[in-house]
Design a protein that fits this description.
single chain; alpha/beta; Arc Repressor Mutant, subunit A; Rossmann fold; four-stranded antiparallel beta sheet; WH-like_DNA-bd_sf; DNA-binding; Sig_transdc_resp-reg_C-effctor; P-loop_NTPase; Winged helix-turn-helix domain-containing protein
Length: about 475
């Protein structure tokens, strides 16, 4: 085993540097062999004790004595042995731990596709075309619009003929930069010691071949993902990224591809025209998956069209609504939508929480906002249609918000896919999806109720929604 300039022969129990023998005591050699066999991982003092002195009761200081003897014997290479505070010892990764390279055979299998993407043929083709010319492509859009499904569909279509190794990385349960790096390493089949979590190490492991890394659900760690992507591109230019997020990474070389909801029918459409609508087709398809004998009656087709309109053509919302049709009936689903979105839950058991409940998906988006952006969004429920910047200023002029602050907040809401902006006319026009408007109206009502309860007892209640006074009646 080679460790920098050091050669460790386990069988002959010999240590050589630059061809010259280094004399070591038997316990010191066993310590070094144990550290070398750990492949860069930290070895605790208790593990060293049980390995080097098995079945023997010795003083703990024996480890310190032999580590000191090892460092003295290694001379200029003494820094190979690293003390990790309160954990143990390891060998320095820069010299002794070579990254275990991932290959197409070692990557984790792609997640299983759940059915076909209805109404997305054109979008898939267009996204594949843009991806071919992009080093970093970020699919953005409102929660539940189908970014993950689109990315997975691209992965399946590209993988068979792609010269790069395709790896799909789910970031849903990776809240820190270290866990994002570990998730990427896991998805690529790379063994990265837990104490050597770095972009440099991961980049070295990925530099042996071209890669297409699909990072799914990056919005809750957007800054960390942006840093990691830039760092990996620096050390491994052969990597290509496809990222799904509710907001862009905002880094160099990024191309942003907005994923729009499915087209919904007009209320004036005939039944056959409604059935040709991608949103209605998705509803019917999912309802039939839940209840194979489901065939919508003429009156139900019109109701399904209204449901799809009410849900803005958002695939997750439509699938959840269709899943409730067996229990509540189509008309029952339509009626309940006027009361809110909380009943839209019950997705696939294997899906993440953000894909099992529309309210949970929107809560994630809301929680990722700054306090001031949350307050502004709650105010925007008052707009039933498009509004311009002057109208926006009129609504918040009693919130003591500066023009600069208002611009920053509306920019945050647009970037995070919670407010739409259209710049086709003489001035930008903003709007909310109807489901977002319903969601923030419920937030407003909740804040109002809690504020009223607090005033009734003349003291604030724990857990009050933190909104400016102008957000309240």
């Amino acid at each position: 085993m080679k460790i920098g300039r050091i050669e460790l022969d386990m069988n002959a129990r010999r240590l050589r540097r630059d061809g010259q023998d280094i004399r070591l005591g038997s316990r010191a050699f066993d310590l070094l062999a144990t550290l070398a066999s750990a492949n860069g991982r930290v070895v605790s003092r208790s593990d060293l004790m049980s390995t080097v002195w098995p079945g023997t009761v010795v003083e703990d200081c024996n480890i310190d004595v032999n580590i000191s003897a090892l460092r003295k014997a290694l001379g200029d290479d003494r820094d190979l042995i690293v003390t990790v505070a309160r954990r143990g010892y390891r060998l320095a990764p820069s010299q002794d731990v070579q990254p275990k390279l991932g290959t197409a055979a070692s990557t984790r299998p792609l997640p299983r596709r759940v059915g076909n993407l209805i109404g997305r043929e054109v979008v898939v083709a267009k996204a594949a075309e843009v991806l071919a010319d992009s080093q970093v492509l970020t699919l953005t859009g409102i929660a539940g619009v189908g970014k993950s499904s689109l990315a997975l569909e691209l992965a399946y279509r590209i993988a068979p003929s792609c010269p790069a190794t395709v790896a799909f990385v789910d970031l849903a349960s990776a809240p820190t930069i270290d866990e994002v790096l570990s998730a990427i390493a896991y998805g690529c089949g790379i063994e990265m010691p837990e104490d050597i979590v770095s972009s440099e190490y991961l980049g070295a492991a990925l530099s042996n071949a071209p890669w297409l890394l699909i990072l799914d659900g990056a919005e809750h760690v957007i800054s960390a993902v942006a840093q990691i992507v830039e760092a990996l591109l620096t050390v491994s230019p052969g990597i290509q990224f496809l990222v799904t997020s509710r907001e862009p990474l905002k880094i160099r070389n990024e191309t942003v591809f907005r994923v729009d909801p499915l087209a919904v029918p007009k209320l004036t459409d005939r039944c056959d025209e409604m059935l040709n609508s991608p949103a209605v087709q998705l509803f019917v398809h999912h309802a039939q998956q839940m209840h194979p004998r489901f065939v919508p009656r003429i009156a139900e087709i019109a109701s399904i069209g209204k449901i799809c309109q009410r849900l803005d053509g958002i695939p997750l919302a439509i699938e959840l609504a269709a899943g409730r049709a067996e229990l509540l009936g189509v008309e029952g689903v339509q009626r309940l939508l006027s009361d809110g979105l909380s009943f839209l839950s019950g997705g696939y058991r294997t899906a993440t929480s953000r894909h099992r409940c529309l309210q949970a998906a929107l809560d994630v988006s809301f929680d990722l906002l700054s306090d001031s952006a949350q307050s502004l969004l709650v105010q925007l429920y008052r707009f039933a249609g498009p509004f311009n910047f002057d109208s926006l200023r009129g609504v918040v002029n009693d919130m003591a918000v500066t023009t600069r602050g208002l611009i920053e907040n509306i920019d945050e809401l647009v970037s995070k896919s919670l407010v739409n902006v259209c710049i086709d006319g003489p001035e930008p026009m903003y709007s909310l999806f109807e489901c977002i408007r319903t969601f923030v109206a419920e937030k407003f009502q909740c804040a109002s109720d809690e504020h009223a309860a607090g005033r009734a007892v003349q003291k604030p209640l724990a857990g009050d929604v933190a909104l400016p006074a102008s957000c309240l009646p």
